[in-house]
């Protein structure tokens, strides 16, 4: 009985001693950013004005959400600075979402790693802002998952997700990409844009089929493990680094010409800061757990400065996926080839 109690106390102690300061700091950052984006001036009075002038009927249960998000997104897609920031938040969201769903598809995936939880947290992020919900929820979820995870010694290593599952994840993300493109392609002054905005807000529901995807087979040691998940993040890394600097140049050019920075655009900038904070919080949890796949703090710092947030996230998750592949292939003894 004492042995059982001791084994139950170990994850709690690990969380309290190692993860708790990281989680508390991340939650504090998330709450601060949330207040700056939704409550404190100048955003608070702006949102109150949106709610007072809203034409949606009061009986609509989603009235408060629609009355705020609709004018926000209308502003984002109506100016080049907003579009630049949308590129930043969109690419970061794409990388993080891909990581969460691919992790959920692993055989022997960590506890609390499920597509259902990712869908729920993404929906919340669509309503509150991913950069405000993320720092509060994601490092906490990861810390709890690692606290509940059994020791690796004696346990079969996770198996990379099957190629068919990875292709399904990529296919759904491509649909999300098309929705985001429609959000900027359809003129925001037309009635059709409103429905496109509704569809984009609810895009996390596109991932529901992943919840019912057949569970991956138990781990079987092979000479070569599937590496498509590694390749996905490598491609993200290559594409998103130059795209980040193109977006930065476009945004700076617009601002220097117009000297205009609307309040909804300010909200979107805070959202981007929060998404980076959420990633750093999760990296800190991995760092405390000694589970960074050899991706040191200096690589994160240099990556953020030189390649931008989305490419840095992709490089880190590429290293994490490669570690999973190497372990599945027999501790890295067998040669693992990229697909």
Structural write-up:
Keywords: Membrane, Transmembrane, Transmembrane helix. The chain has helices at about 1-40, 45-55, 65-75, 80-105, 115-130, 130-150, 165-185, 190-200, 210, 230-260, 265-290, 295-305, 310-330. It has about 350 residues and is an all-alpha fold. The longest helix is centred in the first third of the chain and has 37 residues, at about 1-40. The chain has one domain (about 1-330). α4 (about 80-105) packs antiparallel against α10 (about 230-260) and α7 (about 165-185) packs antiparallel against α8. The N and C termini lie far apart (about 50 Å).
Count of individual helical segments: 13
If you average the pLDDT, what whole number results?
A: 88
| H-E string | HHHHHHHHHHHHH
Category by helix and strand content: mainly alpha
Helices and strands in order:
Layout: H1 2-38, H2 43-53, H3 63-76, H4 80-104, H5 115-128, H6 130-148, H7 163-185, H8 191-201, H9 208-211, H10 228-258, H11 263-288, H12 297-306, H13 309-328
Helix pairs in contact: 1-6, 1-11, 2-3, 4-7, 4-10, 4-11, 4-13, 5-6, 6-11, 7-8, 10-13, 12-13
What's this, in brief?
With 339 residues, the protein is mainly alpha-helical.
List the defining traits of the structure above.
339 residues, 13 helices, 0% strand, globular, disordered N terminus, disordered C terminus
């Amino acid at each position: 009985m004492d042995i059982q109690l001791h084994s139950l106390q170990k994850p709690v102690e690990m969380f309290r001693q190692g993860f708790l300061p990281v989680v508390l700091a991340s939650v504090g950052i998330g709450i601060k950013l949330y207040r700056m984006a939704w409550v404190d001036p100048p955003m608070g009075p702006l949102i109150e004005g949106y709610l007072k002038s809203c034409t949606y009927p009061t009986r609509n249960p989603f009235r408060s959400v629609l009355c705020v998000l609709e004018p926000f997104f209308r502003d984002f897609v109506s100016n080049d600075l907003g579009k630049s920031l949308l590129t930043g938040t969109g690419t970061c969201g794409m990388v993080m979402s891909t990581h969460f769903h691919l992790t959920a598809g692993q055989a022997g995936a960590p506890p609390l790693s499920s597509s259902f939880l990712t869908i729920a947290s993404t929906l919340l992020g669509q309503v509150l802002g991913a950069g405000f919900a993320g720092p509060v929820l994601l490092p906490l979820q990861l810390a709890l998952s690692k606290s509940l995870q059994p020791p690796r010694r004696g346990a079969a290593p996770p198996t990379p997700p099957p190629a068919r599952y990875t292709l399904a994840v990529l296919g759904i993300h491509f649909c999300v990409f098309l929705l985001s493109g429609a959000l900027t392609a359809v003129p925001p002054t037309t009635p059709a844009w409103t429905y496109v905005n509704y569809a984009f807000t609810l895009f996390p529901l596109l991932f529901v089929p992943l919840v019912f995807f057949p569970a991956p087979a138990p781990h079987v040691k092979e000479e070569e493990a599937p590496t498509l998940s590694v390749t996905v993040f490598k491609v993200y890394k290559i594409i998103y680094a130059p795209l980040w600097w193109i977006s930065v140049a476009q945004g700076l050019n617009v601002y220097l010409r117009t000297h205009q920075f609307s309040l909804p655009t300010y909200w979107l900038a805070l959202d981007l800061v929060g998404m980076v904070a959420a990633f750093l919080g999760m990296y800190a949890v991995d760092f405390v757990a000694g589970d960074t796949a050899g991706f040191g703090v200096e690589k994160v710092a240099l990556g953020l400065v030189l390649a931008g947030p989305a490419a840095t996230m992709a490089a880190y998750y590429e290293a994490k996926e490669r570690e999973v592949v190497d372990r599945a292939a027999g501790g890295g003894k067998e040669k693992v080839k990229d697909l």
